[in-house]
Design a protein that fits this description.
Strands 1, 2, 3, 4, 5, 6, 7, 8 and 9 form a 9-stranded mixed sheet that branches. Strands 10-11-14-12-13 form a 5-stranded mixed sheet, with helices on both faces. It contains 17 helices and 18 strands. It has 3 domains: 211 residues, Heat Shock Protein 90, CATH 3.30.565; 166 residues, Ribosomal Protein S5, domain 2 (2-Layer Sandwich), CATH 3.30.230.10; 129 residues, 3-Layer(aba) Sandwich (Rossmann fold), CATH 3.40.50. Helix 3 runs antiparallel to helix 5, helix 9 packs parallel to helix 11 and helix 11 crosses helix 12. Helices cover 35% and strands 19% of the residues. The protein is of the alpha/beta class and 559 residues long. A hairpin with a 2-residue loop joins strand 10 and strand 11. It is globular.
């Protein structure tokens, strides 16, 4: 039967169906577009935006203190001693500049070349979006020995901008902070529970992120007050990124003194700190205009390229690598490294790949960072030959281990263990072949395996007993990992492969349940298994394939 065109109904889609969202309505309508999510992470982004407005003041050399208060009733207050928000009438819209900044998207002082040449806020959601997502907000600004304020509800002003005179509504902030300084801004807000899944700030996230900003803006003093637990925290660092990597390496043994590189090239300020530890896993933190770029970006690419080139050049120059030897790889040079990469550049040129600023997109950052880091490392190696020797020796050991791991994996592959070989004999597999509905229960020992087999549904539930505690893979290279029979059995059962031949699409189970005993040993085994997945099969976790069985707390008996 031939297809027939259905009659069109023009009245179903006309001009009246086109919604025009005015003011801050788009933010409340689609909050995820502005803060990523409405959960705990989204709440932090709201807090971060207000804090970073004050940090921008500090980067413009206009602020030296930031106060952050988390109140018992989930109100959050951020204050600074910067220049304050202008409160005079905006010539274009005929309203106070304070009201415009807080109620109009993309309004602010960071879009021109004047006040804020370097700022993290250009691509941010902005204070106005935070205002839209807040049940209540008050902004107080002090300039020229006068203080003005405005209250808002869900982004809408409750009254015109008013002046606070000494004695009128003199809040504690006005007395201690504003009246004691020539200028500043104080913002108090409470997230709207109608939109946000949680309105209670996570103190651990706040402390970690604020501490990072103190590392990144040397000389800026952060004062944090936790009103819930009545405690204070103060962060101030003179040495910036060097202090950061020392903190990151405090539980590890360092191989050499920290390397610090700082240079401005073609209007991009590049700052890098590097220190190798006795561990195996790399730790890289990157920032652009104080914003943490958790997914890296072009500046990290430039750093990695320069690091590998500089180490290879020095290794050949010092005779560690002969003419016939292959170059050290990026994987080798990153093993055990702790590094922080931070760039600052003109806000108007700054490009992030998302509103939440997780990845830097400026193509010009790659060659500039690469040049600065390469030349900086060349100088460091020449001036610090003992540290250079320690770094090269560590990287060469990593290269040898990589080759040994590849040989070990190849040997296993030649035996057909990972691909096309038989499944482990102790695996009680399920009948189902669709991984989306198949489950694998990893249990502790043969006795637990027997009980699990009796209680399972063999149609879709498989059981794999592991004998004893598996290897701690946190400090083990792949060649050592592959020598451990229990891990080898687990990888074979999963079907994903391991190392550079991983294919997560070949996973035989989309639900892997860690079912260990409800005692200290069981908790330890569960931790070891999670460590293995985190280090060697991380996408099993990010895809949501890993589960933890919770032991029952009570037993109900009948009769």
């Amino acid at each position: 039967m031939p297809l027939q065109r259905l009659p069109r109904k023009p009245e179903e889609y006309s001009a009246r169906e086109i919604q025009v969202l005015e003011g801050l309505e788009p933010v409340r309508k689609r909050p995820g577009m502005y803060i990523g999510s409405t959960d705990e992470r989204g709440l932090w982004i709201m807090i971060k935006e207000i804090i970073d407005n004050s940090v921008d003041e500090a980067m413009a050399s206009r602020c030296s203190n930031i106060w952050i208060e988390l109140h018992k009733d989930n109100f959050i207050t951020v204050s600074d001693d910067g220049f304050g928000i202008p409160y005079d009438i905006h010539p274009k819209v005929g309203k106070s500049a304070l009201e415009v900044a807080m109620t109009v998207l993309h309004a602010g002082g960071k879009f021109g070349e004047g006040a804020y040449k370097v700022s993290g806020g250009l691509h941010g959601v902005g204070a106005s979006a935070v205002n839209a997502l807040s049940q209540y907000m008050r902004v107080e600004t002090r300039r020229n020995n006068k203080t003005f304020f405005q209250d808002y509800s869900k982004g809408t002003p409750k009254h015109d901008v008013r002046e606070i005179k000494k004695g009128d509504e003199a809040t504690e902030y006005n007395y201690h902070y504003v009246w004691g300084t020539k200028s500043g801004v104080r913002t108090t807000f409470k997230a709207d529970p109608e939109i946000m899944q949680t309105i209670e700030p996570n103190m651990e996230i706040v402390l970690k992120q604020v501490k990072n900003r103190a590392y990144l803006v040397a000389g800026l003093y952060f004062h944090i007050y936790d009103g819930v637990k009545d405690r204070e925290f103060h962060y101030y660092f003179d040495s910036g990124l060097v202090a950061l990597i020392k903190h990151m390496n405090k539980s590890k043994g360092s191989v050499h003194n920290p390397i610090y590189i700082h240079r401005k090239l073609e209007e991009i300020d590049v700052e890098v700190a590097i220190q190798y530890s006795d561990g195996f896993n790399p730790t890289l933190e990157s920032y652009a205009n104080v914003q943490a770029t958790n997914d890296g970006g072009t500046h990290v690419t430039g750093f990695k390229t320069a690091l590998t080139r500089a180490i290879n050049d020095y290794a050949r120059k010092q005779g560690y690598l002969k003419e016939k030897d292959d170059n050290l790889t990026g994987e080798d040079t990153l093993e055990g490294i702790t590094a922080a990469i931070a760039i600052k550049m003109d806000s108007e040129r700054l490009q992030f790949e998302s509103q939440t600023k997780d990845k830097l997109g400026n193509a010009e950052a790659t060659p500039i960072v690469s040049q600065v880091v390469k030349e900086g490392l060349d100088v460091f190696f020449e001036e610090n030959p003992a540290d250079g020797r320690r770094i090269i020796e560590k990287v060469i050991i990593a290269a040898r281990a990589r080759l040994a791991a590849r040989a070990a994996k190849d040997a296993v592959l030649r035996k057909g263990a990972f691909e096309g070989g038989a499944l482990p004999g102790k695996l009680a597999d399920c009948q189902e072949r669709d991984p989306a509905v198949s489950e694998l229960y990893i249990v502790e020992g043969d006795s637990a395996g027997g009980s699990a087999k009796q209680g399972r549904d063999r149609k879709f539930q498989a059981i794999l007993p592991l004998r004893g505690k598996i290897l701690n893979t946190e400090r083990a290279r792949l060649d050592k990992v592959l020598e451990f029979e229990e891990i080898k059995s687990l990888v074979i059962a999963l079907g994903t492969g391991i190392g550079d031949s991983i294919d997560y699409n070949k996973a035989r189970y989309h639900r892997v349940v860690l079912m260990t005993d409800a005692d200290v040993d069981g908790a330890h085994i569960r931790t070891l298994l999670l460590t293995f997945f985190y280090r060697y099969l991380p996408e099993m976790i990010t895809r949501g394939y890993i589960y933890i069985a919770q032991p029952p707390l009570f037993k109900v008996a009948k009769g």
